[in-house]
Amino acid sequence: MDVVSNLLYLLVVLALGFLARYVGLLNDARADRLTQFAFYVALPALVFTSTATQSLGEVLEPRLVLGFWAVLLSAAAVGWVVHRRESSPSVRSVAVVQSYHCNLGFLGLPIVAATFGDVVTAKASLLLGIGALTQVPLTVAVLVFVNNADANVRDELGNVFANPVLVALCFGLLCSAFGVSVPAPVLSGLDAVAGFALPIALLVVGASLSLDEASVDLSTVGSVVALKMLVMPAIALVTFSLLSADVSTTRAGVLMLAMPTAVSTFIYASELGGDANLASANVFATTVASVGTILLVLQFVG
Q: Is Disulfide bond found in the keyword set (predicted)?
């Protein structure tokens, strides 16, 4: 599919997920099963096949990781400055977190794979692993610090290392490093499973979207959308340009960092004292806005 077709597909499947939840077809139990399949099966299969079949030297690009960290921390700093005057800690913490926390797994990697394929997907898989080790600790730290939340940070962070995507990434990189050839039937089977990553992820994200305008400050939502969907991708474009990154690195880095805020931020906010209604509204607004902003980003990197 070309870029426009990909984005129309994204919008349609998101809408189907939202409507399926609205009419009761995709209830909590079914949505949970789809989420588990995507998280434990489809995404790990996509990560493994994309990395195991590529040259390790081409995937492990230092500028990719340095650029990702620079953009993430810069966006977090800008979010902190913009939202520091929010009177409520629960609102301030969520606004800051959702100004930088990207949906790398359920939207980022599948969209990169559908748009570019090959080495760009392998680099995006690496960023998914790096992101899990970076975004989650930063988000937990911000929510706990701002809300003075009573939480077992060690347990929260320990869950990161049980992430099946990280396991798949490690195996994929090891196969690449040692030249292990994955048997063709196995690779074909994993490719088939990986093909379900995008549609299932979109259905799950669509089913999770909800918006209650009466309970949130729309100006705060608007500022989060502007920071996450416009400012952060702009920082990414400038950063990877200054690093003189090659085309595949720039495509992987910028597109992954241009993703809307992750659904998981709603869960973290609910558990760690953040404003859950605002978190839900921000997920909804950034995801809907991403249909247009991703198309804009792809005009620069596609």
A: no
The residues, any chain, with a CB within 8 Å of residue 201's CB and separated by 6 or more, are 38, 42, 43, 105, 106, 107, 110
Q: Are 284 and 210 in contact (CB under 8 A)?
A: yes
b vs e for 133-152, b when ≥16 Cβ sit within 10 Å of the residue's Cβ?
ebbbeebbebbbebbebeee
> Residue 102 in 3-state DSSP?
strand
Q: What angle do CA 236, 74, 248 make, to 5 degrees?
A: 25
* CA quadruple 107, 164, 76, 82: dihedral sign: positive
DSSP 8-state class, residue 106: I
- Outline where DSSP puts E strands in the chain: none
**C-alpha 84, offset from chain centre:** 24
The residue among 232, 240, 222, 241 whose CA lies nearest residue 289 is 222
C-alpha span between 86 and 223 (Å, rounded):
12
Domains and CATH numbers, the chain: 3-301 (1.20.1530.20)
Distances in whole angstroms, Cα of residue 83 to Cα of each of 99, 137, 279: 10, 20, 14
Compute the distance between CA of residue 225 and CA of residue 198 in angstroms, rounded to an integer: 23
Q: Three-class SS string for 7-39?
A: HHHHHHHHHHHHHHHHCCCCCHHHHHHHHHHHH
Cα(18)–Cα(26) distance, integer angstroms? 9
Closest CA to 282 of 235, 231, 217: 217
Render pLDDT for 42-70 as a digit per residue (tens, 0 to 9): 989 989 998 988 888 888 899 999 999 99
Q: What is the distance, to the nearest Å, from the Cα of residue 41 to the centroid of all Cα atoms in its chain? A: 17
